[in-house]
Amino acid sequence: KESNGPTDCYAAISQADRLQSEPESIRKWREEQKERLEQLDANSRKQEAEWKEKAIKELEEWYARQDEKLQKTKASNRAAEEAFVSDAEDVFPGTEWERVAQLCDFNPKASKQAKDVSRMRSVLISLKQAPLVR
C-alpha cells in the first residue's frame, strides 16, 4: 500500500532527526515541561469543577432565599389587605378623620415619598379644624 504522500515519510524522518539531534538536557526539559503542563491542566479542570459546584450550590441557596422572601411578602400583603378591607367595612359617622389619619402620614420627616405633600397635609389639617359647612 502506498502512503498518503511524501509528507508522511518526511514527517517521520524529521521526527527521527529531531530526536537524534536534540541534546539530552533539552529532551528532559521538554518531558518535564509536558508533565508540568498536564498537571496544571488537571488542577485547573479540578478547580473549575469545584467552582461550578460552589456556584450551583450558591444559586440554589439564593433561589431558596428569594422564594422564602416572596412567600413572606405575599403573606404580609394578604394580611394587610384583609385588615384594610375589614377597616373599610367598619364605617361609622364621626370616624372619618381617624380613618384619614390612618391612611395618611402626617409626619414630614418620616415620610419616604419623593413628592412634596406638604400642601395636601396642610389642606387636610385645615379641613379637620374648620370643616366645610353643607
TrEMBL record:
Keywords: Coated pit, Coiled coil, Cytoplasmic vesicle, Membrane. It is a peripheral membrane protein. One of its GO terms (cellular component) is postsynaptic endocytic zone cytoplasmic component. One of its GO terms (biological process) is clathrin-dependent endocytosis. It is found in: Cytoplasmic vesicle membrane; Membrane, Coated pit. GO terms for molecular function: clathrin heavy chain binding; structural molecule activity. Residues 30-83 form a coiled coil. Residues 1-25 are annotated as: Disordered. The keyword Coiled coil applies. Pfam families: Clathrin_lg_ch. InterPro entries: Clathrin_L-chain (IPR000996). The keyword Coiled coil applies. It comes from the Eukaryota. Transmembrane segments: none annotated. Its main location: membrane. Clathrin is the major protein of the polyhedral coat of coated pits and vesicles. Belongs to the clathrin light chain family. PANTHER family: CLATHRIN LIGHT CHAIN, CLATHRIN LIGHT CHAIN A. This is Clathrin light chain. It comes from Nothocercus julius. The lineage of its organism: Eukaryota, Metazoa, Chordata, Craniata, Vertebrata. The gene is Clta.
